[in-house]
Amino acid sequence: MTDMLVKLYDLPPLDACLENITSKGCTVRRAMAYEKTAVLDWLGSIAPHWVDECAAGFSHAPHKCFIATENGAVVGFAVYDVVIKNMFGPTLVDDRMRGKGLGTGLMLSCMHSMRNDGYGYAIIGGVGPKEYYAKTVGAVEIAGSTPGVYIDRLNQKKS
After folding, report:
1. For residue 74, what is the domain's CATH number?
2. Does residue 148 sit within a domain?
3. Is residue 77 assigned to a domain?
4. Which of 23, 44, 72, 119 has the fewest Cβ atoms within 10 angstroms?
């Protein structure tokens, strides 16, 4: 997995994306402190390896964790500035909720917040779907970025 770079001064608009999500009965918004346990419990049930990173998003004010919800239940999350400063991710949308624009809404919410925090560029760490990020936010691959900041990880087998 490689890292990608995004120009935050050239992002797609956020409002239209969020309106589209709302029209489908969902919401994307910044998580609140009183929701931390519910968000971490949800994430722990489907991707326990990201719970620590998500929890770190709640240690900032304002929180650097955004959530997607449907009918009062968490169905997605995204964080930034939790692994290292200026890095977006991890992010996840429940499999049954894919195709509703939630992942894009979560990413754009984080990216717009990063721009508002004063960053000019963002790193997307350990990218899976390179084509999606390139198409959606113009992300470009950072040469030589594997394994990036994910070195010497605990509980990882050495090859």
Report:
1. 3.40.630.30
2. no
3. yes
4. 72
Alpha helices for 24-154 (secondary structure H): 36-46, 51-57, 102-116, 130-137
Number of neighbours of residue 116 by Cβ within 10 angstroms = 9
Is pTM beyond 0.85 here? yes
Tens of pLDDT, residues 101-143: 999 999 999 999 999 999 999 999 989 889 999 999 999 999 9
Residue 121 structural domain: 2-141
State yes or no: cis peptide before 90, omega within 30 of 0: yes
What domain count does the chain have?
1
Structural domain includes residue 133: yes
The sign of the CA dihedral 136, 142, 147, 153 is negative
